[in-house]
Design a protein that fits this description.
CATH class: Alpha Beta
Oligomer: single chain
Shape: globular
CATH topology: Rossmann fold
Strand content: 15-25%
Distance between the termini: 43 Å
Strand order of the largest sheet: 3-2-1-4-5-6-9
Radius of gyration: 17 Å
CATH superfamily: NAD(P)-binding Rossmann-like Domain
InterPro entries: NAD(P)-bd_dom_sf, SDR_fam
Protein name: Short-chain dehydrogenase/reductase
């Protein structure tokens, strides 16, 4: 049986770093994102990856896409939910549409994906479902009302899944990413910040890979990753 990893939410930072990390370990990696043209470019550059157009907030796509993945690659044993949407406004200033969109991507989308892939995870002796979270799940600052509330709900859902699925040998973990990812656009936006201010996406991918290899007697549910310079 092929080793298959599905990653929902592929961008030039964490998503692509995760795809490279898991293909290096011999996985066929299904890359799911809305921008198919960009996915196809990365697919051509990274052997072992496979592009699938997918909108995490659209419940009608999930069953079809994950059925295709199973037919073309095999049953998924690792699901990495890396999709995220962030609107940083106060509760007074955020629109209802912005609030709902943030919730749909971060929390609703996780539930939709889990329901669609759970049967495939159960086909394996051991499987993993890892969620990319944020420190906003623990603290609702004044200008983060939509993002913080969505991430808090996401973390709570992940914890519920961990308690439900752990006895089935499906490891659910929540990764709190606290900081700014090192990307050309973030460097450009913060030209005065030193190297140690930024998080390295490849290092994050190493940490997530480690979670999928843990022995079930010592599973981690929540893992914080941050550079030492981050204030927490």
């Amino acid at each position: 049986m092929n080793k298959v990893c599905a990653i929902i939410g592929i961008g030039p930072g964490n998503g692509l770093a995760l795809a490279r990390r898991f293909t290096r370990e011999g996985y066929d990696v299904a890359m799911l994102s809305r921008n198919l043209d960009r996915l196809k470019e990365w697919e051509a550059e990274n052997p072992g990856t496979h592009a699938y157009q997918y909108d995490a907030s659209d419940s009608e796509q999930a069953t079809e896409v994950f059925t295709r993945i199973r037919q073309e690659l095999g049953p998924v044993s690792v699901l990495l939910y890396n999709a995220g949407a962030g609107v940083f406004k106060s509760a007074e200033d955020v629109s209802l549409d912005e609030f709902e969109t943030t919730w749909r991507v971060n929390c609703y989308g996780l539930l939709v994906a889990t329901q669609a892939v759970l049967g495939q995870l159960r086909e394996h002796d051991q499987a993993s479902l890892i969620v990319t979270g944020a420190s906003a799940a623990w603290r609702g600052r004044a200008a983060t009302a939509p993002f913080a509330s969505a991430k808090a709900a996401q973390r709570s859902l992940a914890q519920s899944l961990a308690r439900q699925l752990g006895p089935e040998n499906i490891h659910v973990a929540y990764v709190v990413i606290d900081g700014v990812i090192d990307l050309p656009r973030t460097r450009q936006a913060m030209p005065d910040k030193p190297d140690e201010f930024f998080l390295d996406a490849d290092a994050i991918a190493d940490s997530i890979w480690f979670l999928t290899r843990q022995h079930r007697s010592a599973w981690t549910f929540e893992l914080d990753v941050r550079p030492f310079a981050e204030s927490w």
